[in-house]
Amino acid sequence: MQSAHLQANAPQPFAATKVLDGFISNLEPVIEGEDVKTVYDVTLNYFQDALHRHWPGDTIGILTYNMQADVEYILNRLDLEGKADAIHRVGIDKNCTKKAAKVPPFVPAAVSLRRLFSECLDLRAVPKKSLIRGLIPCTSDPCDKRFLEVLCSKEGHSAYEEYILKQGKGFTALLKLVTSCKPTAAVMIEHLPRLMPRPYSIANAHREDGSRTIRFIISHNASCPGITTTYLRGLDTGALVYFYFRQSSPFTFKDSELRNNLIMVGTGTGVSPYLAFLDLRAEALAKGHTVGKAELIAGFRYRDRSYLCQEEILGYLETGALDACYEAFSRDENSRFKYVQDRIKERKAQIVENLRNPHGLLFVCGDSKVLLPQITATIVELLAESSDDQERESSKAFIDQLKKDGKYREDVWL
Fold it and tell me: What range(s) does the FAD-binding FR-type domain occupy (predicted)?
């Protein structure tokens, strides 16, 4: 049995439960190939006595680990390989003049450097100027020092944007630019943020029979691999994973809403939470309950090699848990509909009717910077019968009110 994650007993963001022990019972690629992200279907089983009631739309938080290559790079760079596994006490230096200085709550009082760098500190965090300023005394080469001084100065804001923000350079990448910089562990503890747990949408409905199974979908971008997806895809069946249930958001879909009419919009792995919606509806139908109408608008790159859970969706269509599925394929040359926005426009009458229906609900899952604003803008255009500015503003206010009332629900990816 591996040692518990160092953050297992620390307070977790948006936690609804304590950290639980999960075991990988399934981890298989369901999409892979050229020009597509590899997508994995993951199942966790957990055995704690307390059974948490989760809803479709809920999420879990996975306690993650930094990539081993990054950890080894830091240990090597700072000449700490020989001390990496020794236990060190963490406290405030008696000569510290900083007021109210304290050890971050996610850093144990006694810890090895290897585990500190692996489990506590975000080695790929975008460096703030305060961190860059803290690196200057740890740098020996005058040119490197000057570079860091410019980056953290007011006059060097454009350089900071160019080298750090635009290029997305994290802490380890910055160290590779200033080769004479050797920060101490103390500097890193003081300035690096916490390695945060990663949230994932639950893709299966809760079972009243007491089964403790959580399913979720992850995607791996080979050109820009994520920390948690890299960690998870390297696990074997039976591997221990630390996770917790996060507090419910307005995006959830509950038993009391089974009679409501649903329109669900998502792209790529943004379709995964709707698998839990459909799972709940299928279970209700199997018990003889009445459910409302459900339509899915789903976007993928290719029909033949990136259509997530296609057979599963077809199965829900056959059983009636899903009434209709409208797809868009952005990279297929012969595709009539490239984006979910095209499908939304095609379904204009039905969507507007659903929004105005007191029993209608619209769910949208995707990136908050691109997809969600685009979909909101598309629906505002649908509601505005003309290009009159006053009517458009009225439509925007109507959408805002729908969101406040819980009829238009967004699952926001940051």
Answer: 23-254
CB contact set of 356 (below 8 Å; sequence gap of 6+): none
Quick one: 377 and 275 in the same domain? yes
The rounded mean pLDDT for the chain is 92
**DSSP 3-state of 303:** coil
Q: Measuring CA to CA, how many Å separate 237 from each of 32, 149, 233?
A: 20, 48, 11
Task: State whether 140 and 40 are in the same domain.
Answer: no
Decide if pLDDT at 305 tops 80: yes
Task: Count how many Cα atoms sit within 13 Å of the Cα of residue 88 in the half-sphere of its side chain.
Answer: 18
> Is residue 311 in a domain?
yes
For residue 97, what pLDDT is reported?
57
Q: What percent of the chain has pLDDT over 70?
A: 95
Domain membership of residue 219 (yes or no) is: yes
Whether the predicted model's global pTM rises above the 0.85 cut: yes
What is the Cα Rg of the chain in Å?
24
Give residue 28's domain range: 20-62+197-245
What are the backbone angles phi and psi of residue 273, rounded to the nearest 5°?
Answer: -65, -25
Residues 322 and 386 in one domain: yes
- Are 153 and 172 in contact by the 8 Å Cβ rule? The answer is no
Which of these, 54, 58, 60, lies nearest to 22 by C-alpha position? 60
Compute the average pLDDT of residues 112-128: 96
Cα–Cα distance for residue pair 270/252, rounded to 1 Å: 14
What domain count does the chain have?
3
Q: Which of 159, 175, 191 is the last residue of a domain?
A: 191
Which residues, 6+ apart, have CB-to-CB distance to 189 below 8 Å? 90, 103, 104, 107, 116, 121
Question: Which residues are paired to 299 by β-bridges?
Answer: 267, 328
> Angle CA(202)–CA(352)–CA(338) in degrees, nearest 5?
65
CATH of the domain at 25: 2.40.30.10
Higher pLDDT, 388 or 395: 395
Domain assignment present for residue 10? The answer is no
Distance (Å) of CA 36 to CA 221, 308, 338, 340: 8, 11, 16, 18
pLDDT digits (tens, 9 = 90+) for 143-188: 999 999 999 999 988 999 988 887 777 999 999 999 999 999 999 9
